[in-house]
Write a structure and sequence with these properties.
With 140 residues, the protein is an all-alpha fold. The protein has one domain. Helix content is 68%, strand content 0%. It contains 7 helices and no strands. The mean pLDDT is 88.
Length: 140
């Protein structure tokens, strides 16, 4: 029984390391396209902070993303802004850049689409605007 638990935990650790390294490499190419410090993609926790900063959102949003439950909303908002910079729709950003980010980051990082860097200069949205955007995407 102990052998099974050790083997299962080793397998889960390997899966975690593979997916996290996929996310880091994808984020490296995304940050390079955004003209940010790409080497920060390989430092845990600070890599998401660099992503928040490079999308033009306030640094405090990074702290909000660490709060359970509420952080999901802010993470979706960061992914939505990143998706708009790479000409992607809200549904694409929500799924591929939030929940399936190891694959989504590689898709936009290794893709040929150049980011629209002027979107980073837009003011940060408030939660009412984000709620309207979510409702509008559900009605489509």
């Amino acid at each position: 029984m102990i052998n099974f638990i050790l083997n299962a935990s080793l397998l889960l650790l390997i899966i975690f390391l593979v997916t996290y390294s996929m996310y880091c490499f994808g984020l490296f190419f995304v940050l390079r396209k955004l003209e940010a410090r790409a080497w920060m993609a390989f430092i845990p926790i600070l890599n998401f902070r660099e992503l928040v900063i490079s999308t033009g959102l306030p640094v405090r949003w990074f702290l909000y993303c660490l709060v359970p439950y509420a952080g999901t909303i802010y993470s979706i908002a960061v992914a939505e802004r990143l998706g708009r910079m790479f000409k992607k729709h809200f549904a694409y950003s929500t799924f591929w850049l939030t929940f399936a980010s190891p694959i989504g980051m590689n898709m936009i990082g290794l893709g040929k689409i150049k980011p629209i860097l002027s979107i980073a200069n837009e003011p940060s949205p408030n939660l009412r605007e984000l709620k309207k955007l979510i409702i509008k995407s559900k009605n489509k």
